[in-house]
User: Fold these one by one.
Assistant:
Number 1:
Amino acid sequence: MSRKIAIIGGGWYGCHIASSLMSLGFSVRLFEQNERLLHEASGNNQFRLHLGFHYPRHATTRIQSRDGFSRFIERYGDLSRPIDQNIYAVPRWTSLLDFDTYKLIMTSTGIPYKTIDRCGVDLREVEGMILTEERVILIERARHYFAAHLRHALSLSVKIDAVEQTDNFVLVNGERFDYLIDATWGHFTPVPLKTFFEPTLLLYFEGAPNLPAVTFVDGPLYSIYPTEEAGVYTLSSVPHTPLGRYASSAEACAARDAIDSEVINAKLRLMVDQACENVAYFRDHYRFLGPQISIKTKPIGGSDDRSCYVGRQGRIFSVMSGKIDTIFFATERILNMMEADGDGAAPEIPSSLLANIRTKAAQVGLDVG
Ligand SMILES: Cc1cc2nc3c(=O)[nH]c(=O)nc-3n(C[C@H](O)[C@H](O)[C@H](O)COP(=O)(O)OP(=O)(O)OC[C@H]3O[C@@H](n4cnc5c(N)ncnc54)[C@H](O)[C@@H]3O)c2cc1C
């Protein structure tokens, strides 16, 4: 019998889980409060398809990224594209790790890279650099893909305020479902981890179309990454991108909505000054275009855990998103937990092992008494 599943949240997680469950024959309804899909964090981020290079301090995140990267390309081949020159650099004075340790961690995780001595642009105070194959996610294509693919399952512009669950079903928007998947990144029900909400500010810049992606690791550093639009880049900074730390979604949304030009201009100065520490050409080659404002749900702790978790309370699953490349792990965990529910208690089945052994022994002429 096909199970009926409700999903709240039309970000990367909700869309991918909906699409996967539909392919398996589940009946799915996806509720999204905005008019379009991928409108919140999923449409406002650095659009990097991670391979693990950003996370030298967290093994599970690296492993999920490494595996999720190839699965993403296999499943969503034309929703990302390669980048001509994608550099990770370890700065001499400000990194928490030295270059050899950084490389050792990546090598031991089985993530491929190439060490380079120079890169054609003027990077200062850098201890070492590698070239990587990380890609850029094509967000508009992704939005179109899911809008078309999920069209019969979508309830857009519907905000879910409350749900009810019994032992046998969950009531969402007046309709009965076998299960509910909360893919709101913790904005509806709590995720299975200690987290906080962090409003964020990335900055968009215009530059020549062939400038490299440059990411400085590891620690309170920054990165410049291309977008799907030729010549448009994001600048993200570990110390300056966060705009506060809030315990509830409502407080974080209110802080996000209060961001004004004064805050953005102050952050712009700080982020450009930081970029100029290592990217000598930054002021001459990039022109500020505008802000990108979003909210991140972050685990508490300094290890930079960005792996994916799924929690469960009765018939409600709550998904703690990792990065976009880790969507696959959420679907698998949810399916495992649903399958483990089965159709009731397993019947008593007596073992036939001894009878089988005796039969085989007799067949080969053994007399074992
Ligand atoms: C600044 C920044 C940079 C990032 N850079 C990268 C990067 O380069 N690469 C990468 O892989 N990841 C990056 N991330 C992380 C990535 O954006 C998230 O992991 C991912 O988008 C989370 O997807 P999601 O579907 O869980 O959440 P979301 O995209 O936030 O989707 C949740 C959806 O739920 C909806 N919703 C919430 N409450 C309700 C309700 N009550 N009723 C109906 N709908 C509701 C929301 O409207 C939203 O559309 C970045 C994040 C930020 C903030």
Number 2:
Amino acid sequence: MNNPFNPSFGRIPEIFLNRGQLIDEVTDELENPNSPYKISIVYGTRGVGKTTFLTEVGRKIKEKDNWIVVNLAMESNLLATLIDNLYINSSSKLKKILQSIDGLSFSAFGLELSTQIKHTLSTYQGILTQMLSQLRKEGIKVLITIDEVKSTKELKNFASYYQLLNREDFPVALMMTGLPENISELQNEDVMTFLLRGKRIALSSLNLSQIEYSYQTVFNAGNYEIAPNILHKMAIMTKGYSYAFQLLGYLVWNGAKDKKVINQEIIDKIMPEYLLELDQNAYTKIFDSLSKQDKNFLYAMAQSDKNHVQIKEIREKLQRPSNFVANYRRRLLDDQVIQATSYGEVAFILPYFKDYVLKQYQFEQELE
Ligand SMILES: Nc1ncnc2c1ncn2[C@@H]1O[C@H](COP(=O)(O)OP(=O)(O)O)[C@@H](O)[C@H]1O
Ligand SMILES: [Mg+2]
């Protein structure tokens, strides 16, 4: 049996843990034309599982025969790609109908525009509207997915066209994902704020009992021996962070390959690698996207000897007024770097992130 864990970003893992009924709920909601989920944004920090979630919803919707799902990549010409993929992903019956639209011709790769026609925004919009009208007549609904939206000119053009479609009640749903910092950039652009009016789907941590159970099932299936206390410990070590769940499973699987016994020794052996990969593939990027003051807040927080840190303690370390501290607290909550554990108290969300922050702090001190 090959290692079933997959700690790489953006691919549906073999071992997939459902977050309650969230995926089913969202796919059901999309059937309702007035659902607030018609436009939705899955947001969350790197590695929580946004791309996986989006792909899984897309896959489920695709199974229904009255739906076409189109995935748009941010780097592409969004409207042109939408035209091509609407055609490519249509059934052969629908392809015939689209072919019959006056003046349009398609090849296996999508639209073939004759050389006389200018490739302008309004050309694409006109073609799309015709195509979508035909599809609507046939009772076909469309789901457009866009992974990791950013504030670009392309997205702006797309947003203003999509707003038009939406106003005319076309059955075209839009599901996007975004990192917190990119989502807040969209707020600064008039046209884009339309996209932000949709439903926000925040991905919470994976359930620890589910993680424990999944490790047990998967390692048993691979004929590994693993004691309950170690299973429990491994679940805690992930803190419910999706990427950590795959990474730890992956390293332990390989680390115990020879003897097929998972014990404390194995955990100690893989620990340096586990921390290194978390840092390199997730934490460095998360931390680098924060502002200097955000970092100072985290430095102050990490120096507490408690895991649940009183805001009061952070304020005293920073020697800043309470509205200043409250502002950065809120920003970091939005970025899903920290969580409020109880009134006036915060904690780090990601596993071993505190250690990462402390290490960065030491570097900073020594380099000064
Ligand atoms: N529901 C899930 N169950 C198990 N593993 C998951 C789940 N969602 C994501 N993962 C894993 O977490 C890692 C990060 O997922 P990804 O969707 O790429 O995150 P994001 O797009 O938020 O950065 C990947 O290794 C993926 O396999
Ligand atoms: Mg992603």
